Amino acid sequence: MSRTWSLFTGKFFGVEFRIHTSYLFLLAFVLLSESSRGGAWAVVRGLELTAMVLASVILRELGRVLAASRTGESIRGILLMPTGGIAMADPHAPDDGGKNVVRELKVALAGPLVSAALAGIWALVALGFRYPPKHLLTQPLVTIDDLVRSFFWINAALCVFNLLPAFPLDMGRVFRAWRAQKLEFRQATRQAVNLGNLFSALFMMAGLLTTQWLMLVGLVIFMAAQLEERTVMFQSVVEAVHMEDIMLTQFSTLSPADTLEDALHLAVHCLQDDFPVVGGSGLVGVISRQMIVDRLRHEGNGYVQAAMSKAFEIASKGESLGSAFRKLTTRGLTLIPVVDEERLVGIVTLQNLMHSMGLLAESKRLSRRQMEDKL
Q: Which pTM value belongs to this model?
């Protein structure tokens, strides 16, 4: 879900970083608030200020990643937002004596500590270059007119804001872990989201009385909380569904001895984009429609055995849909064969997986609406 409104940035320490489109709102906000200056200079400085926010968030999230690795937390990706990052982690086992709270607290404190360190080091460097100390306290604290002062206050704000229990900020996630000791994880998330929405409303109201930056903070917190809740709901659905519930049982296979032209003919006359390759010893590889076309285009006709991929994952019938989704997205696969007692009984492709997820989400919404109508 984090890929829908985000842009891939890169991988650091094995964790995928993506930039959320809320940074476009931040850039637009900066340019509009500084519109009185006009000209190319204001646009360039606005881009620099936005880049400072992004750089500050990336550095603090790298600190969280390192802290998570020391606590055994498995973070697969981080969605970067102006108020911090949303970590995409594997679901925790039920809490045992508050261990999840302690783990979440250790990871949560890493972010504010990095932000505080950045603010402190930046202030010392600036003062060392004879930057007037009184300028750090000059209003407005964040402005394109003084990027030195702005960088200091950006990191100071990231530190302070993330010490508030406003989900999904750092301490808000600790609050969720604390509530999850007594409640189901989805219910704990719902409570944390409600608290985050309260802080979001308070920030917006404070922004009306003081600075518009607080209104932007409140808006971003609200957006992040909604995204986090939808992600948790999505995870709860996919973890409860098994492969046998959504796998395709009517599918075509190829043999290693088939020619690529025969494979293309089969691909043209069926709806599959991906095919398991079955030999005498069972499943021996997978091949996609695109792989067939590319090999024919560049090397001419040949055999499926030479073009197929032998790097594939398999799943059992009882494996969860969430597990299949992680296998597909982590390794960049498009097909997972489903086996039962070493016999191929079905396939799950990325295409039918996304279709099934959409139907499952709609089914969940209908069930919830029916329960609300009964009440």
A: 0.70
